[in-house]
Design goal:
It is a single chain. The protein has helices at residues 12-47, 53-60, 64-87, 93-116, 126-143, 152-176. It has 180 residues and is mainly α. The chain has one domain. α4 crosses α6 (152-176). It is globular and about 50 Å long. The mean pLDDT is 90. It comes from Streptomyces kebangsaanensis.
């Protein structure tokens, strides 16, 4: 029996693999970001004077608890997207947008590290987990015939969604913890 691409099964390694890859990546961010920010915001403030002072104050005041709550909130979004992907065999537009956002998020980490010429939280797992997983999952979706054509607008939307999820989760965590 011959199989057409759409007959191929996209299993949980592709769909829930997004959640697993995200968890590995965000474990690095969770361990590194609060301390890294406290140590580096003064240097970054001088190096990038055009950034509004309010952003520097907020970045320098992120504590481990607030960051952990924000990471958990994003994790719930990624879990829901992964479940949507599993329920639809990878066809879910939400899952595919989250997969694109994850891969682009990894590229942003690499760009940040390159711009700063050194380590930034998330830059260690991006080239070994985030980008390879995203490329692998997209290839599996493509072979199964379920990957939607990716237009530049979709990539911009994915990047905007990743940014909104991160900013929204940090704002919600800040509010939830009483602005500590």
């Amino acid at each position: 029996m011959t199989h057409t691409p759409s007959d191929q099964h996209v299993g949980p390694a592709v769909t829930f693999g997004l959640l697993a890859a995200w968890a590995l990546h965000d474990t690095e961010e969770l361990a590194a970001a609060p301390g890294w920010l406290r140590r580096n915001v003064p240097v970054l403030r001088e190096r990038f004077p055009g950034v509004p002072e309010a952003l520097w104050r907020r970045a320098g005041s992120v504590d481990g608890r607030q960051f952990a709550v924000a990471v958990g909130m994003v994790g719930s979004i990624v879990a829901a997207a992964s479940a949507a992907g599993a329920a639809t065999g990878g066809r879910s537009a939400v899952y595919q947008a989250a997969l694109n956002a994850f891969g682009l998020h990894g590229l942003v980490h690499l760009a940040q590290a390159a711009a700063l010429r050194g380590y930034t939280p998330g830059s260690a797992t991006s080239p070994v987990v985030v980008v390879p997983f995203t490329l692998w999952a997209r290839a599996r979706l493509r072979r199964a015939g379920v990957l939607r054509p990716t237009r530049p607008r979709d990539l911009a939307l994915g990047l905007a969604l990743a940014g909104a999820a991160a900013a929204g989760s940090h704002a919600a965590a800040h509010r939830l913890l009483g602005g500590r």
